[in-house]
Amino acid sequence: MSAPERFILRTTLTSPVGRKVRMAAEVVGLGDRVTVEPTDVADPQDTLRQQNPIGKMPCLVRADGSSLFDSSVIIEFLQFVAGTERLLPVSGEERFALQTRSRMADAITDAAALVVYEAKWHEAAHVSEPWLDYQRGKILRCLTAFEAAPPDPRVSDVVSIGLACSLEFLDRRTQVNWRESHPRLATWLAQFARHEPAYERIHGPYGA
Ligand SMILES: N[C@@H](CCC(=O)N[C@@H](CS)C(=O)NCC(=O)O)C(=O)O
User: Fold this and answer.
1) pTM, whole model, 2 decimals?
2) Which of 94, 144, 168, 183 is most buried, with most CB under 10 Å away?
């Protein structure tokens, strides 16, 4: 019998999307088969750009050298390798509602990353406040939708894993202050972090 395939995940340890994939790998029991190899997305010499022409992390490199991206594809692949449907049912109507909510959770990180990049890539005089407000509006609308219907904190799936990583990113980089205005979501995150051991393994102790 051949040895189980091992994977390389190109990501920094702090990337919220990289953390989403690493958490998903832990949840489906593949954490030991995924080795993180850090990348610098801004470095033109970094091999990431050959592995993923989009130049974004995370990117999963298989034993045969082929690559998988983006994070939602990687996560579906990992649950396929693990032989489970724990993160997302592979068929049935429920799949579509979960995928939609999963994209909404990811959209918080997408917009929050653009807020961070605005300051990183533009000199102070060129930072656009209307653009930042536009992105913060997306974050706040998605948070409001989740506040009205938070996920079940006892369930670890594509929605809860993505949402936890997005909220942790907002706590770390403070693109918006969300906790007071979204108390049910704050409670949800605390409960989810208590329920899912992979949360602490990837993000560190909750609230630290
Ligand atoms: N839709 C992508 C988003 C990935 C993403 O935005 N990654 C960020 C780091 S958290 C990145 O690589 N940014 C560099 C860039 O935008 O060029 C996914 O889900 O994998």
Assistant:
1) 0.97
2) 168
